[in-house]
Inverse folding.
C-alpha cells in the first residue's frame, strides 16, 4: 500500500489583488464592462500584469505586441520598470504591516533559483507568504487586500520552510 498527495494545502485568509496594485501605479489599464462586470484590459496601454499563479509580465511599450502576442522585453527602460515593480512589491504591506511577498525572482534566474524553464515564466516570479494568495481579479475600487472565501490553496508558496506544503508519503507492505 502506498499513500501520497500531489501537494500540500495551506490555509488561505487574504487575497492580494496585484492587478489592482498595478492599476493604482498606472501600469495596468482596464475598465469594467457595465453589462457583465468583467474587467477588460487595454493590452496596448498596459505595461504590467499579474497572471498564472505567480508570474508578473512587464513590457514598457505595452503587453500586446504587434503580432498580438506578448514578447519578453529588454533594455534600460524595461529594466527600470522592472526595478520599479520589484520595489512596489517589496514595500507592499497589509493593514497589519505584514508583507505578503516572500520572494521575487527575475525570469532569467528562474531556472537556477526555482527550477522553472524561462519559456514558462513571466518577467518576475512572485512567491507569497502562507495565508496570502495572489489573485488576478480587478475591481473598480482597486482594492488590494480582501478576505478570501476559499479556505486553502498551494500556488506560489515556497515549500522549503512551509510544512503545510510537504506531501505525505506512506509505504506499507511485505519487505518494506
Amino acid at each position: 500500500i502506498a499513500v501520497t498527495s500531489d501537494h500540500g494545502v495551506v490555509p488561505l485568509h487574504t487575497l492580494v489583488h496585484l492587478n489592482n496594485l498595478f492599476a493604482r501605479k498606472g501600469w495596468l489599464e482596464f475598465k469594467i464592462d457595465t453589462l457583465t462586470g468583467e474587467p477588460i484590459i487595454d493590452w496596448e496601454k498596459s505595461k504590467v500584469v499579474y497572471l498564472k499563479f505567480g508570474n508578473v509580465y512587464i513590457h514598457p511599450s505595452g503587453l500586446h505586441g504587434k503580432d498580438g502576442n506578448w514578447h519578453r522585453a529588454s533594455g534600460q527602460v524595461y529594466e527600470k520598470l522592472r526595478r520599479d515593480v520589484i520595489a512596489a512589491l517589496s514595500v507592499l504591506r497589509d493593514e497589519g504591516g505584514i508583507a505578503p511577498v516572500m520572494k521575487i525572482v527575475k525570469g532569467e534566474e528562474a531556472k537556477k533559483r526555482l527550477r522553472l524553464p524561462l519559456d514558462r515564466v513571466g518577467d518576475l516570479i512572485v512567491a507569497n507568504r502562507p495565508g496570502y494568495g495572489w489573485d488576478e481579479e480587478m475591481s473598480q475600487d482597486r482594492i488590494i487586500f480582501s478576505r478570501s472565501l476559499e479556505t486553502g490553496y498551494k500556488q506560489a508558496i515556497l515549500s522549503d520552510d512551509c510544512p503545510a506544503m510537504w506531501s505525505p508519503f506512506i509505504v506499507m507492505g511485505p519487505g518494506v
User: Anything to note?
Assistant: The helical segments are 18-24, 76-90, 110-114.
